[in-house]
Amino acid sequence: MEKIRELSNNAVREPASSIVHIRKFLTLSIGIVVVVVGLGLAVFASIDELAPLVSFEMEQSLSRPYASALPRDEIMDEYLQVLTEKLLAVQNLPAGMQVMVHYVDSDESTAFSTVGGHIFVFRGMLEKLPHENALVMLLAHEIAHIKYRHPLKGLGKGVVASLMLSMMFGTAYSDTIDKVFHDTGLLTVLKFSQSQEILADEEGMRIYYQYYRHLNGMSDLYRVIEDNQPQIMLGSSYPGIQSDISARRQNIKQHHVKERLDDQTAVTLFPPSIKARFHPQHEP
Asked: Would you state the torsion angle of the CA atoms of residues 19, 22, 24, 29, taken in this order, to the nearest 10 degrees?
């Protein structure tokens, strides 16, 4: 009888013990989910502050397949890269940050920066610039976007939050991020805010001044953009360049006054061999 009672008690204890273990498992699982969701929401809410913590190497890994597939114009790419390197020499970028410039033989009047430190300059934009100084200001502006990680932030909070969480948990970026890039394209998902454009303008002016020691010719870039803005806004697939240029140009004029611009300082024209690349009628 005693043995029967003992067996009966053991039979009762075993299900009870299983229930306790199940409860502990469920509690732990719910706790993990809450922590992960909470962490995700915190990252999402603070994305502008946290985005620079994403390693630049991860940015480069995102852009590498696209950049390597681009057609190359060795003469124009080298010319643009040499100008960019001169600007980088007076601009201290964070360690490990690199900038690569690509010439795009297209009528579209645009230029933009994207993730991984890549800048794209279109023939349509170069054709409208009156001199090399305006091009230098354009490059300085795009370098500033890269410095402040604006292309990364321009991917959208969801993508950047996924990158942050992937980095935190030591995993590769997710299939979702990969799908975003393949479905929409690396170059068309970016969007810069008006405040980011103004910050890039001001930092670009600083780089420009450090390089030339004057600001003459710098505002010609903004005159070209403003004069062609209807065409740029309607014909461009790249929303990063679409902003209120009139407000930005007014900000530029204020800097002219502050710097006591010397309007007599000469600007540098494009080398004839380079101008012939995007203006065939100017063959040397």
From this structure: -160
Question: How far apart are alpha carbons 179 and 27 in whole angstroms?
Answer: 34
Q: How crowded is residue 97: how many other Cβ atoms within 10 Å of its Cβ?
A: 16
Return d(Cα 253, Cα 219) in angstroms, integer.
Answer: 8
For residue range 191-246, what is the model confidence (pLDDT) as tens digits? 788 888 989 999 999 999 999 988 888 889 988 888 877 655 444 444 444 456 77
Query: How many whole angstroms separate alpha carbon 133 and alpha carbon 212?
Result: 9
Considering only CA atoms, which of 187, 179, 185, 202 is closest in space to residue 249?
Answer: 202
Length of the chain equals 284
pTM score: 0.73
Element (H, E) at 162: helix 157-168
Adjacency order of strands within the sheet including 118-122: 100-104, 118-122, 111-114
